[in-house]
Amino acid sequence: MKELIERVETIFSELGYNLFDKEESDELYQASFGKDDEVYGTFFVEGDNNFLEIANTYTFESDEEDFLREHLEDMMNICYEYGNYFNIVREEDEIDFSVFSKLYYTGLNLESLEDTLEDFIDCNRELISILNAEDEE
Known about the structure:
The chain is α+β, with helices and mostly antiparallel strands. The chain has helices at residues 2-14, 65-81, 110-136, and strands at residues 18-24, 28-35, 38-46, 51-61, 85-90, 94-104. The longest helix has 27 residues, at 110-136. The protein is globular. The mean pLDDT is 94.
């Protein structure tokens, strides 16, 4: 797993991303990534997986459930458009909407990660535009 982590970190670095909030255990390595003081998400390297997972989570308070329901179809369509998938987890006081992308290690190189990150970041920017548009109303 150590070699895989080094490979992933190197490619992120070559693409100009900063890595921070790194956490590592025997089975999992995760780090957040961004550029120019903007955080784009977190990636995960798990010992028993065949792919790099990239994720970002939006948290809504329970009283924002109606807002989420109103925009959920648009949010889902944006995820599908960019080839990302999502899940929704409802906790007692909040609702998490998480966006994910995966890249198999066998195809992991500079170009493939660059393309995957471009789609992932564009997807999240569109999601943020929906959330910000509602705040402006």
